[in-house]
């Protein structure tokens, strides 16, 4: 249930980065006009998320309500 509340699109305040968490455990990150700049798998445990990018690097982040802190970025949940 915790995972489901984080599924969706997370966006930086300037809209440059759009990070989508898909229900199938995959993610897609767009940067500016480049869709699919990063893709890979994610796993959420509580408020923490860990990534394995398709290129092989790993990353993580933490959720605090509708704010998502990831790799030095602050993203906000996009409303449906």
Could you characterize the architecture of this molecule?
The chain has strands at residues 8-12, 17-21, 26-31, 34-45, 48-53, 58-64, 67-70, 73-77. It has no helices and eight strands. The chain has 80 residues and is mostly beta strands.
Summarize the structure.
With 80 residues, this protein is mainly beta. The chain has strands spanning 8-12, 17-21, 26-31, 34-45, 48-53, 58-64, 67-70, 73-77. A hairpin with a 2-residue loop joins strand 3 (26-31) and strand 4 (34-45).
Main beta-sheet annotation = 8 strands, antiparallel, barrel
| Number of alpha- plus pi-helical segments | 0
Mean pLDDT: 93
Give the percentage of residues in beta strands: over 45%
Number of strands: 8
Overall body shape: globular
DSSP helix fraction: under 10%
Give the terminus-to-terminus CA distance: 18 Å
Give the H and E element order: EEEEEEEE
Strand order of the largest sheet: 1-2-3-4-5-6-7-8
pLDDT below 50 for ≥5 consecutive residues: which ranges? Answer: none
Rg over CA atoms = 11 Å
Content-based structural category: mainly beta
Oligomer: single chain
């Amino acid at each position: 249930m915790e995972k489901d509340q984080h599924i969706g699109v997370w966006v930086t305040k300037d809209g440059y980065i759009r990070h989508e968490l898909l229900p199938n455990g995959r993610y897609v990150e767009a940067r500016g006009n480049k869709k699919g700049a990063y893709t890979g798998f994610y796993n959420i445990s509580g408020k923490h998320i860990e990534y394995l990018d398709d290129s092989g690097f790993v990353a993580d982040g933490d959720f605090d309500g509708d704010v998502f802190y990831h790799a030095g970025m602050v993203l906000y949940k996009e409303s449906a």
